[in-house]
Amino acid sequence: MARSQPDFSNSVKLKYVKLGYQYLVNHIISLTLVPVMAAVLVKVLRLGPDEILSLWRSLHFDLVQILCSAFLIIFVTTVYFMSKPRTIFLVDYACYKPPVTCRVPFSTFMEHSRLILKDKPKSVEFQMRILERSGLGEETCLPPAIHYIPPSPTMEAARGEAELVIFSAMDALFQKTGLKPKDIDILIVNCSLFSPTPSLSAMVINKYKLRSNIKSFNLSGMGCSAGLISVDLARDLLQVHPYSNAVVVSTEIITPNYYQGNERAMLLPNCLFRMGGAAILLSNRRSNRRRAKYRLVHVVRTHKGADDKAYRCVFEEEDKEGKVGISLSKDLMAIAGEALKSNITTIGPLVLPASEQLLFLLTLIGRKIFNPKWKPYIPDFKEAFEHFCIHAGGRAVIDELQKNLQLSSEHVEASRMTLHRFGNTSSSSLWYELGYIEAKGRMRKGDRVWQIAFGSGFKCNSAVWKCNRTIKIPSDGPWADCIDRYPVHIPEVVKL
Question: Bridge partners of 250?
């Protein structure tokens, strides 16, 4: 009988070899400089006092040289600090928690679907199959207008939802940070599908009587990744406006966008999207350094809109009956995968340790020169980040990223539990996920967080944060009354 070969992939010795390799490559400069400096120190110690004094006297300095050298040092230092980007701090954030009166259990959702689509049983059955496999729980919420039969998506109801979500999140942010409305210098509101006149940013300015010289922006049509686009815009503005506070509000208003037709590609968002919103305070003020939760390290944006399939994979249009809805293409996951690859190609060199970059480079060279069939090396992003916040767009999105990035169940726990508890809250989902990690008491000083979001267009955006201080378990927030129940087991199929 043939002798079985040892499993080297699970070998403990191989694990330590890999750890040794990573330490050697990541600390190569230190390991090289320490012996050199030690040799120089030993050489100096071997010299006698007379030799050292003689060596010092052999160096000739005059006043002009000293002054020129001092001026050059001061000039270079000044240019360096003036050209250095300002540090952007995330002081704190607040997520909206819908009231229990807006809760939509599976039974309620399906009952409404049967009544609204009573002449279209196949569409009802399709929605039931999607809901069974969606990964959503029984406590997700829809706005009051959607609870009517039939739904009442009026402009007044949509404004009412916007006011409820945005003002609640803003009030919570003011309470948590002690920020006063007059201290807001920059306001950015992103909401993809609801863009009234006056804008949502103007609505916030009117509500809180913000200053007349405030710099306000309203982003629409940019999908679920618009939250990170807003952070990127705020970062750029904070670079040119010193001593400023920027508030970013991310939300999606469901009321006017609940599809009541029969197209399956348009019924899918009804099953996934739910109420939610978040308000985030960013600042470049040094006085906020100690109390800020995070420091912004990188924002990387990838846009695949030049490709026709990518451009149309999430598309708002009318169906055959003239009813407007969001159509999700069957190619969505493949396009998202390509966008993620492009994004990783850019962000990898910025965050990965030298050991991972060297392995990737050597594999790439081997594939080009020796054997194109070599399996490409997938960098281990777990070496670069302690926490991952993957946009809770749906179960398939989380599964695909977990597989491609080779993440553990714990790494995607925040995303899965956010999808289960709150559903797909669009651009604000990343902040519910960050809130989950904090509520579990897992965030420590120095921890690095990778936020990944996808949006229509098609876009893949990333933000990298570094924890500024160990964060205590919050006593409030959207997870306060339910965090002890999580994580929960989410079956592949929930039979309805």
Answer: 190, 278
- Total-model pTM: 0.86
**pLDDT tens digits, residue range 347-389?**
988 988 887 878 777 777 777 777 777 776 778 899 899 999 9
Per the annotation, the verdict on 420 as an active-site residue is yes
**Nearest to 89, CA basis, from 265, 281, 283:** 283
- Degrees to nearest 5, angle at CA 32 with 27 and 37: 125
Q: Residues with Cβ < 8 Å from 331, sequence gap 6 or more?
A: 309, 313
CA distance 449 to 442: 12
Nearest partner of 341 among 367, 312, 310, judged by Cα: 310
The residue annotated as part of the active site, out of 389, 391, 460, 467, is 391
Query: Does the active-site annotation cover 489?
Result: no
d(CA 367, CA 375): 8
Instruction: Find the catalytic residue in 95, 141, 224, 460.
Output: 224
- CB-based contacts of 115: which residues, under 8 Å, 6+ apart? 149
Helix, strand, or coil here: 80? helix
DSSP H helices in 274-428: 308-312, 332-351, 354-369, 395-404, 413-422
Annotated catalytic residue: which of 387, 461, 467, 468?
387
Cis peptide before 150 (omega within 30 of 0): yes
Interior CA angle at 267 toward 266 and 270, to 5°?
Answer: 115
Question: Could you read off the pLDDT of 404-414 as tens digits, one per residue?
Answer: 898 999 999 99
Q: Is 112 one of the annotated active-site residues of the chain?
A: no
The CA-based angle 183-98-152, given to 5 degrees, is 110
Q: State how far the Cα of 48 lies from the Cα of 458, in Å rounded to an integer.
A: 70
Catalytic residue among 245, 424, 461, 468: 424
Q: Is 241 a catalytic residue?
A: no
What are the phi and psi torsion angles at 321 (to 5°)?
-95, 5
* Residue 206 among the catalytic residues: no
Q: Is there a contact between 301 and 459 (Cβ–Cβ < 8 Å)?
A: yes
Single out the catalytic residue among 262, 271, 284, 420.
420
Catalytic: which of 147, 241, 298, 303?
A: 303
